[in-house]
Amino acid sequence: MRHGNRVKKLGRKKEHRHALLRNLCRSLFIFERIRTTLPKAKEARKLAEHLIEFAKKNDLAARRTIYRFIPDHKLVNIICDEFGQRFTDRQGGYTRIYRLGPRLGDGAEMAILELVEQSDAAAIDLRRKLIERRRLPETESKKEKGKKSKTKKEKKSDEAATRKKKSKETSVEKGKKAKKQEKKQKEKR
Fold it and tell me: What integer pLDDT is reported at residue 2 of this predicted model?
């Protein structure tokens, strides 16, 4: 009997399955369309629609709940501000699944999971860059673009040089203090 078998296990342990679904939802909210196997798409659809329901509320508790599943503050802001407003009129059915047929390698049933209302390609590309770079590409100043960034080795060598200078200065200062104390002791005698 199949009592209590409500979770599709997808051939994975609990932690691996949760990580997989979170990553699928994260990609779905960034690109608004992902290609995956049909069972994964069906399970990711449940989580994505659940998160969009919270995004429609757009309060602190909802943001924290979304953050539990997608631990990226910028993406949580995008989900609540953009997707929450986009789907305010809908009561459900925020995603759709297109079946693509079997995969050539192993014959797994493939599908496309996408949001029903999609943005234009430029907005999706800007969102992707924001998430990947952690800042908007237009905010870089011209000076930063012109400067050549230092490699890790150069940065470490610069730090080591400053440390050596400081240690030399402190040793020289200690020597000077010691000489002054000796002079004071000689004068007292």
Answer: 78
Nearest 10 degrees: Cα torsion 23, 24, 29, 34: 140
Tracing tokens 């047929």 back to the chain, one arrives at 101
pLDDT in tens, 128-170: 888 887 555 565 555 555 555 667 667 677 777 777 666 666 6
pLDDT at 167: 66
Q: Are strands 95-102 and 33-37 parallel, antiparallel or unpaired?
A: unpaired
The neighbour count for residue 67, using CB atoms within 10 Å, is: 14
Structure tokens at 100: 């693509």
CA gap 40, 156 in Å, rounded: 45
pTM of the model: 0.68
The CA distance from 141 to 164, in Å, is 33
CA dist 164 and 39 (Å) reads 60
Pick from 134, 138, 157, 147: nearest CA to 72: 134
Q: Quick check: 4 pLDDT over 60? A: yes
To the nearest 10°, report the CA torsion of 43, 78, 30, 136.
Answer: -160
Task: Return d(Cα 183, Cα 76) in angstroms, integer.
Answer: 68
Q: Is 54 a residue whose pLDDT tops 90?
A: yes
DSSP symbols for 44-56 = HHHHHHHHHHHHH
The whole-angstrom separation of Cα 69 and Cα 72 is 9
